[in-house]
Structure formats: C-alpha cells, structure tokens
Queue: 3 jobs
Job 1
Amino acid sequence: MNIKTKTFEVQTAGTISGYASTWIREPDSYGDVVAKGAFLDSIEQIKDSGKPIPLLWNHDSADLKSFIGTVTELNEDDHGLYFEATFDDTPEAQRARQLASDGRLAKFSFAYDVLDQGEVELEDGRKANELRKLNIHEVSLVMYPANPDTGVVEVKSGRRNSAKDEDKLRQIIALAQECLGEYEDTDEPETESSAKSEELDTVNDEERERMARLIKEAEDLLTKEDSK
C-alpha cells in the first residue's frame, strides 16, 4: 500500500512573549520552586530535534482547537524561562491573542517531566520541593497559573498574509486596474437603439464600480497589513 502525504504550511497571525516559569523562591500552588538551570538540557534537546513545542490553551492537548500556536524561542535568563511563540491563524488562537493583548489572559504554565528534584530550605526556614531538572513538553496560556509570577511580556498582532499571499494580492490589483482601464477605453458608442446603448452603459458603469470597490478593498488590506 502506497500512502501519499502532503505538507501544508501553517499560517500564523501574531506573536506573544513572556515567562513560563521564574526563579522566584516562593513555592507555587504545588509547593514547588524551580531551580535556575532546570530547563537547559530540555531546551537543547528541543533545538536539536528541530521539532518545536506547542503553545496550548490551558494544557488541553485533548482538544485540537486548544493548540493555539508554536513556541519559537526558549531560553533561560536571570528572571526565568523566557519564551516567544506565534499564534495560529484560527478563530480560537486569535481570540486567545486578543484576550492576552488586552490583559484578560496574562499568565502561563507548562507541562513537564521531573528528572531531578529534592527538598530545599528557603531563606525564611520553610521547606519546599525544588525542581532541578525538567523536560518541558508545552507552554500554556492559562487563567490560573501554579506560579503567579509568570506573565506576558509582549503581544503583537502580526501579519495575517504571508509574503507570497501579498504578491498575489498585488498582482490581482494590477490585473483589475488593467481591466478597469479597458472598460473605460471600450465604452460602446451610441447606436441606433438608444435603449440598448443605455443598457450597455449601465452594465459598464456597474462593472466599473464593482471593480473599483474591489481594488480599494484590496489596497486597504495591504495598507493595513503593512502598518502592523
């Protein structure tokens, strides 16, 4: 049996960046703190594999609609686990982007396997479970994070049209403008039948108006995309 496959490019629309984890020494809702360096090996494995991890809504990997984007950058800095991600061009992903942009969704979490952990005493004498080495599987935009110190750094609307789509749109505009010019140059002359002439003029006027309106809409769309 021969199985044929076809690869499609995922259209992206907008980006988000933030911290999925931080080194704050305040135990999260599970009593855990994360040690700096806990993600380094996992980050390298992800880079070496060439397979990015997903951005999910609320860890819901059972629902494909909850796959709202792709994590494109992961690294540790002095504050925590910083990430950047692109949003998919789907209604669910774009709704999540809007909510993150206006601040109604502003926290993150992540799914992981624990490879190394141990009890640690904090500066105030409390005990906590320190996560020292983790494999990270996804980053999630969430309403209620285990670690409230996580947060959004920036959300951008991005481009909804790829460069290839933009080229096609410009070609369509050029062709439409050419056709519109031909309409203007080839108006039917007056004939013996004034009724027929008026009918042709009406059709030409309607076509000119329709094409001019479509050209304007396409040009407005390009202008809007270029300004983002």
Job 2
Amino acid sequence: MKNVKILLGIAILGLMTSCLKDQEDTFDKPSAQRAEESIAANYKILAGAEHGWLMQYYPSPYRTYGGYNVFMKFTADGKVTVASDIEDAEATAESNYKITQSAGVVLSFDTYNEIFHLFSTPDAPLGGETGTGWEGDYDFEFISASPEKIVLKGKKTGNYATMVPCKDDNWADYINKIAVIEEDMNFPKYSMKIDTTTVDIVKSYRSFTMTYPTATTDTTISVPYVVTDGGLQFYEPVTIAGKQISGFKHATDTWDFACADDANIILNGIVPPLNETFVSSDWYMAYSAAGEYAQAALKRMEAGSATEGETIVLLAFTNVDGYPSLYFRSGNYAGYFCYSYKFTGDDTITMYYNGTNDGGNAPYYLRNCDYTPIVSVFGFDAQSARTFKLTTDNMKSPTYITLTDVNEPTNVITMYTQGISYPFNN
C-alpha cells in the first residue's frame, strides 16, 4: 500500500510539472513584456491609418443621447487631431493621447480636447444636467485591434466604440453628408408596422423611444442610434414581434424609410398639425419678434419686474400638465400661467387664461407687477379668448412658430425653438 501511495504521488507530481510546462509554453514572455509589445503594436496600428479613423461613439452610461461620429488622426509621438458631427464640419482640435497598461491595455485622451471632451465635461455644453453633462468616456480599453478595425470599451460607461479607417481626408464632406441625411430622416414622431404590431416612436437627441403592445401590456424600449452615410444604425439590434431590426436606410424625398434588415418593415415619419406641435413643445420669446400690440404688453411686464428690482431672464411657452403655459423667470423667481385651448383647424388655435392651474410665483406677479397685459395677449378669460393663425418655416422641423391674432393684426408673436435668454435684449 505504501508503494502505491508513493507511485500515486509521483504521478501527481508529474502531472503538475507537465501543467507548469504547458503554462510556460503558453506564456513564454513575462507579462510586463507582453504588455509593452501590445502597447507598441497598438500605437503602430493607430498611427498607421493614413487618413485617420472614424469612431462610432456613445456617451452616457445609458446611451441617453445616442451615438456620434468622431474622426481621429493619430501620430506616433502621441498627438491626435479630432473632428466630430457634434461640431461644425470644418472644426478640428488637437490634443495628446497615450496607451498604457491598466487592467488591460488602455487608450487615454489625457489632455483636454476642445471637441472630444465636449462629451464628458460636467459643464454640460451639449445639454443634460449641469455637473455631469453627457458623462462620456475618455479612457477606453482595447478589446481588439487590427489595421481594419478597432473595438474599444469605455472604462466609465462600458459602452463599445468601433473604429474603422477613413477612406480619405475629407472628414468635413462626410459630416455634411450625414447632416443632410439626419435632416431628411428627422420627424417629430414616427410609426412602424411589423405584421399586425404597430410601434409608436418618438425621438430625443439620437435615441428612439419605441412603444408597442405585447401579450399583457405595452412595452417601451430606448433605442440609441448613430447617423451613417447610409441612414440610421442602432447601437445594437432590437427584436420586436419576432423581427430583428438594426437600423433604417436613408431615402430622399420621402417620409418612409426601409428597415436595413427587412424591406417590408417601414419607418414612417409623421408630421402633426402645427397647432399640435405648438402645444407639445417649448417655444422661446423675444421682444424684437413681437408686433406692436404684444410689444406694449411686454414693456409693461418688463416695468413690473423692474419695480421688484428684477430683470426678466426668460419668457417662453411650454407644456405644463397638458396646458400650454406662459412661463417666465424674473430675477431668481419663476412661475407660469396656464391656458385652456381648442383647435379650430390644423393651423389655428383658440386660447384663454384659465386662472386655475398657475404655478410658482405667477399669482404674485399677476397681482403686484402689472403682468395682466401680457397674460391678456393670449386671452385673459373665456369671454375674451383669442384665436391665432400659426405659420412656420418648416412643418417637419420648425425653428419658429408665428402666432397672429385673427382679430388684432398687430398682436403677433414669433416664438423660437432655440432658447433665448434675456428676451428684452433680443
């Protein structure tokens, strides 16, 4: 029995020796040396793309804002030149980069780049919450790398970013092309039919919110995408009603766009009537864009705030709990006046101040700061309701809406989609 135990021990020792030898054969170089070689190889791949790289990049841990095209040209001495469809087509910015070993081989954009770091700066220059911004990555782990394709993973968000070599140096041409494609495919809302399933779709930034019925309830999913020279490409395919969808193909002079995976599935752009667009969106006001009647009311509003030692910072129409509402901010104080309304055609709306759904400091300013005239511009009560005809520059994607009182031609106000601070200076 003792001999058997001795023989068994020898056999086990032999197996262990064999395993150790296999490991030595597999990793025949120290880990530090392997890391250095990988770093050197990745520097060579990055700098080796003659015309640079095109990255599909998704900031935000939840990909809330969708994906963006980022062009990058690397040099062997640690410089990178960046352009992106988030900026003007001709704009570029140069900064430094480095590749290091840190729980994997990591690409870091380690000095501030005026374009690339827009996605991560907490000042929120692109929107989002001040203090966090879009929470984009600037450190990426290499998942794979070859001269044909690089796959990275954001250290903070966990989002994947793919990079392919650019075909030429005309980055601006590509950016301008996809801007046209994005505008062609941009609609206030969409609908899609998959067999008998209807999918309702709205868009925020570059992300679709899709809602569709399932067996027991409605399902809502977020689908971030990037705009390419062929259309809209999803971050990852989604499956709805048993069909896989990875994006939609661009087409000109149409509101219908075929699915990249199945030509029978169509994304249909929908343009609502202009009055629906008005009551469902935010519209910013400027003194200079008002007619004589409305300007007189605005001047009294400005004077009323001045009696409180305040300047009007913002004036807008917005939707509050289903009511179109006149929102204001006077100094550090804000409030809103809510209006009841009805549609009297696709491009007309009748409104009046209902006096019951106000919020914030609205009642105080109405009583004490001579705000009654500006509230009356849109109809002070049911007996003095006003009907406006609405016009715009682009039904599909308006930049402004002009309200013209059908009974008082000088009561005209143009409101803009772009935010306007200090409306009396504009």
Job 3
Amino acid sequence: MPPFFGVSDFKKLRVWRKAHALALNTDRLAASIRGARYAGLRSQMTRAAMSVSANIVEGREHKNEREFARFLGYALASSSELENHLLVARDLRAITKTDFDSTLSQVIDVRKMLHGLLAKLSNSKPSPSTNPVPSPSAGSEKRAAGSRQQSSKGVLATL
C-alpha cells in the first residue's frame, strides 16, 4: 500500500526534524541538571521530548490519516507535558532562564507545526456520509476519495 501523502520516509517531515532537534536539545538540557533530587525531572523531560518525535514516526507509519492524526494528538500532549516539566525546572532554578526560553520556543514551534498538520489532515478528509447504506454510486465516491487522497500528496513535505 503506498503512503497516503507520498512521503514514506518520516525523516523528510519538517515537523519530525524539528521535534527530533527538540529531543536532542532537551536531553542536553536535562543532562545539565545536577543533583539526585532532580533525577525524576531529568527522566520525565527527556521521555516527554522523545515522545513527541516518536509519536510522529509511529503515526506516520500507520499510512492512514485518521491514525496519523491520533498519534499527532499524542505528540501534542507530550509537548504540553514537556512544557510543564520545563516550567517546573525553571521555577526550581534547575535550569537557566536562557535555556528555558530557548527550549520553550522550540516546543511552541513544534506545537504550531503539529496543529497545522492536524488542520491539513482534517481539511483533506472526506465529509461524513449522511447515507450509511451503499448506493449505486458508491464506486464513483471511492474514485472521488482516491482523487482527494492524490491531491493531498506533498502536504507533509511542507510541514
């Protein structure tokens, strides 16, 4: 089955590249936090950041828009979790204001891209049918759905 957007390699997704950079930066930041009492915070920060990019990858591999959108929702939730951990780290003075500001900026950038991608996915979905019983024109509806799918190729490469 060919990928639904013509992008089979998740590494070509700009949103994944940004999320991957966020995960790497968060790992570096977490490693700079010293003290045994912050071990849980370090771990949770890293796990939440890695979850953002991992959910983009996992959802992309499902090859259908509905499942992809579901995993993008998980990625959004993980980005919010990461923001919370960053706020805690800042308020505990475990990270500098500069590190907080730059990492939060990355989180917001990724979150905006995820929202944009979700909006594009919802706009490319066919409208729900009001007639649940297949009609004689069901074949033409499938062909129309296929052409809608074709018209959405390349959307992911821009996000």
